[in-house]
């Protein structure tokens, strides 16, 4: 199947776009020449939204996933939808409110990984609640102290930007990779770094997700819980809103 141009990679604020249908896969998934729909990857859920056919019929997109490779983006229609034909021009619109919450949460996860510089063993971004698991046997961290550190970074309104580096650059700087289990994609020749702060002073790490442009856009967040997950793991949960009193 042909490769889909991932418009969200350089333009995470793009809410809609026109595209052409390349084909329908054997499971009824829609493949397009370009898309604004982010496909589930790296702990960030894929987008939902609407695809409007040439005749005006709306097809609900219930999920977006990757195919055999990460370059294959598959738009999963809601059950019973009348599928578009290959070659058809369609209009794409993502559920922007949901995506923007995910972008805010995802960026907050980067801030947490900068505050807690320990190897990450798992992460999941959600609309209301996100979690990061750290390889961290003992912690002096409290919900209150980490929330305070997070909000300092949010309130400082640091810029968030991407930069491409070569695989050789990444190999020379292994400290950039914070995940123990997920290796950045290799073989493509270049790696996308997500940087926070002037000159990436706060953080930089390989990531293919969508992020807000400035940390201030994240708004109020707090650590809801720090849970013990086995002898060497701590799970931090990030939630929207200020830390509840008491
Ligand atoms: Zn990211």
Break the fold down into its secondary structure elements and pairings.
Blueprint lengths: L4 E2 L9 E9 L5 E3 L1 E2 L13 E4 L5 E9 L6 E5 L11 E6 L1 H20 L4 E5 L4 E7 L7 H13 L4 E7 H6 L17 E7 L6 E4 L14 E8 L4 E8 L6
Parallel strand pairs: 1-4
Antiparallel strand pairs: 2-3, 2-8, 5-6, 5-8, 6-7, 9-10, 10-15, 11-12, 12-13, 14-15
Helix pairs in contact: 1-2
The structure holds zinc ion.
The site of zinc ion has 6 residues, from α1.
Number of beta strands = 15
Question: Which radius of gyration do the C-alpha atoms yield?
Answer: 19 Å
Beta-strand percentage?
Answer: 25-35%
User: Which hetero ligands occur in this complex?
Assistant: zinc ion
Shape: globular
Poorly predicted spans: none
Percent in helix: 10-25%
Number of helices: 3
Biggest sheet descriptor: 6 strands, antiparallel
Order of helices and strands: EEEEEEEEHEEHEHEEEE
In whole angstroms, how far apart are the ends?
A: 54 Å
**Class from secondary-structure proportions:** alpha+beta
């Amino acid at each position: 199947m042909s490769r889909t141009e991932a418009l969200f990679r350089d333009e995470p604020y793009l809410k809609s776009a026109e595209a052409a249908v390349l084909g329908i896969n054997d499971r009824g998934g829609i493949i397009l020449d370009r898309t604004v729909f982010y496909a589930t990857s790296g702990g960030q859920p894929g987008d939902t939204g609407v695809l409007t056919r040439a005749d005006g019929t709306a097809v609900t997109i219930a999920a977006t996933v990757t195919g055999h490779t990460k370059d294959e983006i598959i738009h999963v229609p809601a059950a019973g939808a009348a599928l578009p034909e290959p070659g058809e021009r369609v209009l794409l619109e993502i559920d922007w409110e949901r995506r923007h919450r995910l972008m805010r949460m995802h960026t907050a996860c980067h801030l947490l990984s900068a505050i807690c510089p320990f190897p990450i063993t798992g992460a999941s971004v959600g609309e209301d609640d996100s979690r990061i698991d750290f390889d961290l046997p003992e912690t002096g961290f409290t919900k209150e102290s980490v929330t305070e550190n997070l909000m300092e970074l949010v309130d400082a309104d640091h810029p968030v930007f991407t930069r491409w580096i070569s695989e050789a650059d990444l190999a020379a700087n292994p400290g950039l990779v914070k995940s123990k289990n997920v290796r950045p994609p290799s073989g493509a020749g270049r790696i996308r770094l997500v940087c926070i702060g002037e000159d990436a002073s706060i953080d930089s790490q390989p990531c293919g997700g969508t992020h807000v442009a400035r940390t201030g856009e994240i708004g109020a967040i707090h650590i809801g819980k720090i849970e013990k997950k086995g002898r060497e793991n701590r799970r931090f949960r990030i939630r929207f809103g200020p830390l509840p009193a008491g």
